[in-house]
Amino acid sequence: MVKAEERNRLPREFFTRDGITVARELLGKILVHETPEGTVRGVITEVESYMGEDDKGSHAYGGRRTGRTEPMFHIGGTSYVYLIYGMYCCMNIVAAAEDVPQAVLIRSVVPADGESRERMARLRSQRAPRGQAPRSIEKHLADGPGKLCIAMGITRADNDQDLTRSGSFYVTEGIEVDPARILAGKRIGIDYAEEAADFLWRFYLKEEGL
Q: What single-letter DSSP state applies at residue 146?
């Protein structure tokens, strides 16, 4: 039986556009993931575009195609989840056509409902450093790519999934976003990318409440 919210999932056609268009239009959409704590839903509030073979900030720069980057070459709507620092996951959604390795890093979400907030807090608490205050966790539930994956229970097991078909991991329609609320800035943590480090390919919502 199809869940009501699955009927509102984003179709393939949404994702098979260029990575900048997909990134901007993902703002306000809802990322859904089934976890051991139950279903978690997060409204996407910050993203970054990575534009493939010519983008020095991209894992696929220069056409690099390895076991790790292979999902980036799959059809738009595929998940690309990788490890950083050997311990934290980052979650991306592949954009564009097959063999065009563009992707959107999901940097931040906010809970879409009260149940999701509670479940995110429990998932974060299970991985929190000893002594970290619950209030600090609550304030910063999923405002960074690593924290987002912990709060939404996303792991390497979720890599290379088809978000247009999966029953446990997908994106749905969300809130309406006024284009005037969308801000652009430099991507974070890619100082090595020379001129590409200055591209304004990070998009986020002006803080006015959801």
A: H
CA distance to 67, 76, 81, 101, 184, per residue, from 58 (Å): 15, 16, 14, 9, 18
For the chain, the domain total comes to: 1
Domain that residue 87 falls in: 4-204
Flag whether 200 is in a domain.
yes
Q: Give the whole-angstrom CA distance, residue 124 versus residue 111.
A: 13
pLDDT bucket at 1, cuts 50 / 70 / 90: very low
Residue 18 lies in a domain: yes
Q: Is residue 109 part of a domain?
A: yes
Token pair for 85: 């620092």
Which CATH number belongs to the domain containing residue 98 in this structure?
Answer: 3.10.300.10
Q: Cα(136)–Cα(157) distance, rounded to whole angstroms?
A: 28
Q: What are phi and psi of 10, to 5 degrees?
A: -75, 135
Distance CA 24, CA 7 (A): 22
- Determine the pLDDT at residue 3: 58
At residue 130 the predicted structure's pLDDT band, cuts being 50, 70 and 90, is low
